[in-house]
């Protein structure tokens, strides 16, 4: 009697058994790789409750980052400024209050309402990061946050992924600058930056050695 199923069909169960896991692994890999933060978080730009502009305040008005983010040199966190910092200027009659844009800030300052900024950059809890160490080593804000002084609304400029951290930790020197230039957003566009050599900087007492071992960042 002729065979209904040719002999090769015996291999079908095996092919399914082996092929399915391989295909699934492929899918998992693709999702993991392409949807991991390297590709999804860059450009993340949530809408804020008030149209606060770094382009205006840090760019055009020239306020130093540390006027508002005043813990960045001494603490792990850079700190979002309290509304009192805004009111130093905005308590003056109608400053910048075209179309009532500053009104929510004033209302919240007087306790009539609340104002919650939407977080932009966020590492998972299991990764340890400290601003003051980086700033003290001469890594500038713009290296990790991009040209904030040109942003109307803050967007994430770098992936903040493990490989991004490690790329710098393995070879930090090209990213270092004099420590009094850390908030200079345009440092790497200046001629002085081409000549700067951290090894010859008299204000540096030692070479930097960022951790590459797991427990350096996963404590
Ligand atoms: C007048 C005060 C002020 C100044 C000056 C200022 N910032 Fe900000 N910054 C804020 C406020 C308020 C927020 C939260 C709202 C927002 O994201 O726009 C913020 C948010 C940020 C964030 C995003 C924080 C997050 O949620 O992840 C970064 C990064 C940042 N600032 C960097 C800088 C840098 C770099 C400078 C200097 C070039 C600077 N800021 C100058 C007030 C200021
Ligand atoms: C080496 C990279 C790096 C440098 C340099 C750096 N930041 Fe950040 N910044 C980060 C990372 C990573 C986060 C997210 C931290 C987290 O989620 O714990 C962050 C978060 C922030 C936040 C949100 C609040 C917070 O502390 O989590 C602000 C504001 C900020 N940075 C401002 C600044 C300013 C201003 C400077 C320069 C004086 C600066 N940063 C320099 C990497 C950097
Ligand atoms: C050093 C003074 C100063 C500080 C501090 C300051 N601002 Fe301003 N702000 C200004 C000036 C000046 C303008 C522009 C006025 C104009 O163009 O009419 C402005 C404009 C604005 C506007 C209107 C922008 C627009 O497009 O109409 C908003 C919203 C605002 N500021 C929010 C804030 C917030 C929030 C803070 C605190 C995190 C803050 N400002 C801190 C000086 C300041
Ligand atoms: C552009 C370069 C650069 C990037 C990007 C960077 N680092 Fe660093 N990191 C440094 C330098 C420089 C030091 C200082 C080493 C020293 O002082 O010897 C450092 C030190 C550290 C330390 C040891 C000091 C401490 O805080 O205990 C940790 C942990 C660390 N970095 C975590 C991170 C993490 C997590 C990221 C990514 C989210 C990151 N770094 C991104 C350059 C960088
Ligand atoms: C310079 C800092 C740094 C060092 C050193 C480091 N990590 Fe990470 N690691 C991170 C950061 C930051 C993240 C979170 C990245 C993100 O949100 O995508 C992370 C995420 C992870 C994850 C989560 C999976 C993933 O890809 O998101 C694992 C697992 C991990 N690290 C293991 C390790 C191991 C094992 C080592 C040592 C060989 C190590 N890490 C060394 C900073 C570091």
Outline the structure in words.
The protein is mostly helical. The longest helix has 24 residues, at 12-35. The mean pLDDT is 88. The chain is extended and about 95 Å long. The termini are far apart. It is 38% helix and 0% strand. The chain folds into three domains: 13-39; 43-80 and 118-196, no CATH class; 84-116, no CATH class. It is built from eleven helices and no strands. It has helices spanning 12-35, 37-40, 54-60, 65-68, 83-90, 103-109, 131-136, 141-145, 162-170, 191-195, 214-217. One heme C binds at residues 65, 69, 72, 77-78, 80, 121-123, 129, 131, 134-135, 139, 141, 143-145, 160, 182-183.
Q: Key features?
A:
11 helices; 219 residues; binds heme C; 38% helix; extended; mainly alpha; single chain
Q: Ligands bound here?
A: heme C
Could you list the spans in which at least 5 consecutive residues all have pLDDT below 50? none
Number of strands: 0
Please report which band the strand proportion falls in: under 5%, 5-15%, 15-25%, 25-35%, 35-45% or over 45%.
under 5%
Q: Report on the biggest sheet.
A: none
Number of domains: 3
Helix content: 25-40%
Helix/strand structural class:
mainly alpha
- Report how far the terminal alpha carbons are from each other: 70 Å
Please trace the helix and strand order, writing H or E for each element: HHHHHHHHHHH
Shape: extended
Rounded mean pLDDT score: 88
Counting DSSP H or I runs of 4 or more residues, the number of helices is 11
How much is the radius of gyration in Å? 25 Å
């Amino acid at each position: 009697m002729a065979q209904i199923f040719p002999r090769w069909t015996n291999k079908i169960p095996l092919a399914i058994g082996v092929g399915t896991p391989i295909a699934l692994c492929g899918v998992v890999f693709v999702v993991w790789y392409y949807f991991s933060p390297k590709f999804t978080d860059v450009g993340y730009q949530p809408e804020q409750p008030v149209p606060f502009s770094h382009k205006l305040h840090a760019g055009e008005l020239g306020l130093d980052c540390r006027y508002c983010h005043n813990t960045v040199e001494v603490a792990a966190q850079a700190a979002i400024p309290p509304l009192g910092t805004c009111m130093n200027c905005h308590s003056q009659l109608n400053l910048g209050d075209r179309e009532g844009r500053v009104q929510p800030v004033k209302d919240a300052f007087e306790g009539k309402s609340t104002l919650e900024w939407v977080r932009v950059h966020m590492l998972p809890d299991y990764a340890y990061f400290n601003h003051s160490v980086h700033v003290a080593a001469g890594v500038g804000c713009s290296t990790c946050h991009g040209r904030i002084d040109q942003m109307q609304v803050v967007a994430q400029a770098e992936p903040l992924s493990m490989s991004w951290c490690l790329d710098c930790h393995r070879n930090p020197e090209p990213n270092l600058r004099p420590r009094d230039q850390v908030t200079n957003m345009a440092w790497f566009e200046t001629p002085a930056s081409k000549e700067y050599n951290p090894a010859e900087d008299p204000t540096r007492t030692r070479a930097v050695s960022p951790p590459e071992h797991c427990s350096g960042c996963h404590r």
